[in-house]
Structures are given as C-alpha cells and as structure tokens.
C-alpha cells in the first residue's frame, strides 16, 4: 500500500465465474467415467476424443443437477434448451471445440445469500449453464515435452456467473463459501477447490465511489482456494487503484494469480482473445424440460441451509450463531436433527455440538461422519445431566471420552462404573457440608455477617470433598438452610 494514495475514494466491482464439476458417474456426452483422477487417458473413448463418426448424447443426470442448483439459487429454469460449439484450438481440447450452453443458459437470474460483518444480502446471479470440461496439459511429467491427459475432457460442469454485484474481497469470500456449502448440500459437486472440482475466475474493475458506469475489467484466474481468491481480489484492487493513481489506464486482460507471492502476471490481452465462432451444436438435438421432470426435481430438494437456519432460530429458539454453525454442513445438521428428535433439550443439544463434539472433531481435523457416538446415545447423556445424575463438566470431561472409545456403552453404565453418579441424596451430602462448615468457622461468621458471596466457596469445597459428585443445586439449597439457621 502506498501512503500517499486514498484507496477509499474507489469502489471495486467484482463478478465471479465459478466452474463446478457435477457429481455424475459418466461424462456430459458419453458413458466414459467422470471420476476424478485415474491413470492418465483411461477414462476416454472415441466419443471423448472426438473421433470422426462419433456422436455425443446428453447425460440426463447432469441436466437434473444443474436444475437442482438452479432451484436452490432461485433461478428461472429455461424449458427450451440447446448447446453451442465454442471453437478454439488448445492441446487439451480433443475435438477442437467445447460444447457449451454459453449462448443460452438453462438457469437464468437468481441469487445467493451472503453474510459478512456488514450484514446479510443477496448476490445476484446472471446465469448457470452447462458445459463440458477440457482435458489437462501436464507440464511436469517429462523434461522436454508437455503431456496431455484427456480423463477430464467431457466431464460435466456448471458455470455459475454472478452479476457484477460484489464489492470487496470479504463478500467474494462469503459468496464462495456459501456457494460451496450449497453445491455440497445438494450433492451437486464435491466443492473441492484444491483438486479443481470447483474453480473460480474473478472479474474485477474499479471506479470512483458514486460513479455508476463500470470500469474496465481484468479477469484473474488460477486460484486454488477460497482464501486465495480473496487474496487475488485484494491484490488486483490495489494494483488497479495504483495504476490509475499513477496516471495510467487499466487494460482489459486476463491475469494469472501466483499464490507463492500473492501477485499476478498477465496471461493474454483483449486483442489476443479468441473469436469462438459460436454456433448451435449440430450433433445434439435441442431438448425440452418437461413439467414432470421439473416437479420431480423440486420435490427431491432437501431443506436448504438458509431455511434450516431460520427454522432453528424460530422454532427451536436457538441463537443465530448456534444455528449457523450447525448448518455449516449438511452432515452436522443431520446429526443435530436426529439428536433433537431424541431429546427435548434443544439448546443443550446445540451446546454439545458446538462445544465438546466440535472440539473433538477440530483436534482431528475430521468431520461429523468420524464422530463415533450415535446421536441417540448423546441424547442419553444429555438426559443424565437433565436428571441431575451428573453435571456437564463431569459429562464432557469424564464420560464422553469413554463413550467415544466404547460407543456401545450407555452413558449411565459408564457413569456408574466410574462411580460418577451425582449424589442427590441429602442424607449423604449433609455430613460433607458439616465437615466444610467446621473447617471454615471464620468464613461462616463472615457469611452470616452479610458476605453472601462466600456461598461459592462453600459449594466449591463440598464439590471437591465429594469428588464432584454432589448435586450442585441441592448442595446450594442445603448450605443455605444450614447457614441461615
Ligand atoms: P465475458 O464475455 O468477458 O466473459 P461477461 O459479460 O460474460 O464477460 O461477464 C463475465 C463476468 O464478469 C460476470 O461475472 C460479470 O458480472 C463480470 N463483469 C462484467 N463486466 C464487469 C466489470 N466491468 N467489472 C467487474 N466485473 C464485470
Ligand atoms: Mg465469461
């Protein structure tokens, strides 16, 4: 940053283009495997390679997944569809063209909710369209040659394009996080940016605040994590402001982000851009989406994360923070749903997920699928606390670890075996109370003279002497009775 520049004079305008690989078994136009990886050039057939005489045929599942995402993003669904050829030459493109819906998308408009420190808002979408992926050039396999792997060629993608509606890197970060949660939630894409199954290009321009015309945009590519998209955007906004402030102009170009130093370098300028000579794909008939197909997809949609979050807040009375964390991913939300079906203590259930369960998972960098305790058993533990048989601290520090080791054991059996059941019987707590009061005659006098805060000390001592097993509520009551008599 340069001290002499007022960066706040400018507003950034950002539009994101996200490519997401659809979770289909086969490719968009052939029965070749769409699985990630595999030995190079093993997921290919003459169709993928575009040999003369081969014909593409459309994968119905890919269309279904695109519509699923379109519904979740509140898009309008186009009923009459066709594909176009996007012609260009590149070694990883076996046919010499890509089949794409670039000219006529299946999902139009829509929006994705984002939450940042500035509050909640919707980022407007321009479209979601279907297209096939290209293969991969491998530059690191041979010292003298570039190799090509066509396994990825023809894998179905959706491209999700926003309006130029994002205004800073934090918003872009929140948008991508939400979009990734959505595609995973819907089983549309695995959302893995590191493996490239979700990829983001960022279009960035700047303008003076108050200006309504769009500035010249630069497209930045090759960010392999959401964090790197944020870094790339921050870097590009700064670069453009500094250019303009030094009297130069932003030129329309495509740049590549280098994560190792956080900067970017030019790939190609507008002049070098391809003329793709789009025309309707002659080998694929236009296709119509029927009402039944649409309604079946709509009926199969799960409750969306935002809907679930609001329901947890409104119906269960959970704090917004709790509801959001539980809905971070579908597996956690599903665990929680089963848990609250088994216990009436909904807030306690949320506390267990946000507290002990999350910290166990975080330590192992695992997700909830790895948590060995079934929700019904956790509900039993919550019940033990509610009945006053154990307190939360004993439950989380002593009982839960054993439950994790032996998920077949009931919490009650574990608590009993470890001799942790709280003493709720006045007859056995009273002698301990008397012992404590006898030990602190001075404090007892102070308490009786009005220093009521000392009750905490007495309760603590009773708990200590009883090995944490005295019921704190009952202890409190009995102590008050003794001290005030
Ligand atoms: P192209 O034809 O160059 O791909 P599009 O009109 O398809 O351009 O837009 C691509 C992306 O760039 C969209 O997300 C769009 O919102 C965004 N975009 C377009 N113009 C601008 C601009 N001036 N500044 C920032 N983003 C922009
Ligand atoms: Mg584009």
Global outline? elongated
SS field, number of helical segments? 16
Provide the list of bound ligands, each named once: adenosine-5'-diphosphate, magnesium ion
The helix-and-strand class reads alpha+beta
User: How much is the average pLDDT?
Assistant: 94
Distance between the termini: 71 Å
Residue runs with pLDDT of under 50 for 5 or more positions: none
How many strand segments? 17
Tell me about the largest β-sheet.
10 strands, mixed
Indicate how many domains the architecture comprises.
3
Walk me through this protein's architecture:
The chain is of the alpha+beta class and 485 residues long. The protein has three domains: 2-292, no CATH class; 303-417, no CATH class; 426-483, Arc Repressor Mutant, subunit A (Orthogonal Bundle), CATH 1.10.10. The chain is built from 16 helices and 17 strands. The protein has helices at residues 46-49, 60-72, 169-185, 226-245, 291-300, 305-314, 320-326, 330-342, 346-364, 375-386, 392-405, 411-417, 426-439, 441-448, 455-465, 472-484; strands at residues 10-21, 76-77, 80-81, 84-87, 97-100, 107-108, 111-116, 119-132, 136-138, 147-149, 156-162, 198-208, 218-223, 253-258, 263-269, 279-280, 287-288. The strands form four sheets. Strands 1, 2, 6, 7, 8, 11, 12, 13, 14 and 15 form a ten-stranded mixed sheet that branches. A hairpin with an 8-residue loop joins strand 9 and strand 10. It is elongated. The termini are far apart. The relative contact order is 0.09. Adenosine-5'-diphosphate (ADP) binds at residues 13-17, 126, 161-164, 203-205, 214-215, 217. Residues 13-17, 126, 161-164, 203-205, 214-215, 217 line the site of adenosine-5'-diphosphate.
């Amino acid at each position: 940053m340069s001290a002499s520049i007022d960066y706040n004079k400018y507003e950034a305008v950002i539009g994101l283009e996200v490519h997401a690989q659809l979770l289909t078994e086969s490719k968009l136009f052939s029965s070749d495997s769409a699985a990630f990886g595999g030995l190079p050039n093993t997921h290919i057939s003459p169709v993928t390679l575009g040999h003369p005489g081969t014909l593409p045929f459309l994968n119905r599942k890919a269309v279904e997944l695109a519509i699923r995402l379109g519904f979740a993003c509140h898009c309008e669904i186009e009923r009459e569809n066709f594909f176009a050829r996007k012609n260009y030459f590149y070694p990883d493109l076996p046919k010499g063209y890509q089949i794409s819906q670039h000219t006529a998308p299946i999902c139009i408009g829509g929006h994705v909710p984002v939450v940042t420190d500035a509050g909640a808002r919707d980022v407007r979408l321009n479209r979601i369209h279907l297209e096939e992926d290209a293969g991969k050039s491998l530059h690191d396999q041979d010292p003298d040659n570039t190799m090509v792997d066509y396994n990825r060629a023809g894998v179905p993608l959706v491209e999700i394009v926003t309006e130029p509606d994002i205004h800073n890197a934090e918003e872009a970060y929140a948008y991508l996080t939400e979009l990734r949660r959505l595609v995973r939630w819907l089983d549309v894409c695995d959302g893995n940016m590191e493996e490239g199954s979700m990829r983001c290009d960022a279009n960035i321009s700047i303008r003076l605040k108050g200006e309504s015309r769009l500035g010249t945009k630069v497209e930045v590519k090759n960010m392999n994590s959401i964090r790197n998209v944020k870094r790339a955007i921050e870097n590009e906004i700064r670069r453009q402001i500094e250019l303009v402030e030094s009297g130069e102009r932003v030129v329309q170009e495509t740049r590549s982000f280098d994560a190792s130093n956080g900067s970017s370098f030019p790939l190609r300028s507008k002049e070098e851009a391809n003329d793709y000579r789009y025309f309707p794909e002659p080998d694929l008939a236009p296709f119509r989406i029927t009402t039944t197909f649409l309604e079946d997809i709509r009926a199969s949609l799960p409750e969306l994360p935002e809907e679930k979050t609001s329901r947890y807040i409104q119906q269960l009375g959970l704090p917004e923070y709790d509801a959001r964390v539980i809905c971070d991913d579908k597996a956690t939300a599903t665990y929680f749903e089963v848990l609250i079906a088994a216990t009436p203590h909904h807030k306690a259930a949320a506390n267990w997920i946000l507290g002990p369960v999350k910290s166990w998972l975080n330590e192992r960098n695992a997700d909830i699928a790895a948590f060995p305790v079934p929700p019904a058993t956790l509900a039993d533990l919550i019940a033990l606390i509610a009945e006053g048989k154990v307190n939360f601290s004993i439950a989380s520090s002593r009982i839960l670890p054993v439950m994790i080791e032996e998920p077949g054991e009931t919490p009650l059996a574990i608590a009993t075996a470890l001799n942790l059941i709280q003493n709720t019987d006045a007859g056995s707590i009273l002698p301990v109370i008397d012992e404590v009061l006898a030990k602190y005659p001075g404090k007892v006098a102070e308490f009786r003279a009005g220093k009521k805060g000392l009750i905490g000390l007495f309760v603590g001592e009773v708990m200590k002497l009883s090995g944490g097993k005295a019921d704190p509520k009952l202890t409190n009551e009995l102590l008050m009775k003794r001290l005030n008599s």
